[in-house]
Amino acid sequence: MELTGPDLKWPGVLAVGTLLAVVIAYAVYRLMSRRQARASAAVANSSALTELPEFRRALRRHRIRMAVLAASAVLLGGAALVGAARPLDTTVDRPQSRSRDIMLCLDISGSMAAYDATLVSTFKTLVQSFQGERIGLVIFNSSAATVFPLTDDYDFINDELDSAARALTGDPAYDSFFAGTFNGRGTSLIGDGLATCVSSFDKVDLQRARSLVFATDNHLAGRPIIDVDEAGALAKAKGVRVYGLNPEEDGADQEATDMREIVTGTGGRYYAMSDQSAIKGIVDSVQAQEATLIDAASRSLYSDNPTLPITLAGLGLVGVIGATRRWAS
Question: Is 158 within 8 Å of 193 (Cβ atoms)?
Answer without folding.
Answer: no
